Amino acid sequence: MTKALLLIDLQNGFCPGGNLPVADGDAVVPVANRLMRDGGYDLVIASQDWHPSNHGSFASQHAGKKPFDMGELSGQPQVMWPDHCVQDTPDADFHPALDVSRIDHVQRKGENPKVDSYSAFRDNDRAALTGLAEFLRSKNVTELDLLGLATDYCVRFSALDAVEMLPGVRVRLIADGCRGIDPKGVEDALSAMADAGVEITDSSRIGI
Ligand SMILES: [Zn+2]
Question: Which of 15, 49, 85, 109 is catalytic?
Answer without folding.
Answer: 109
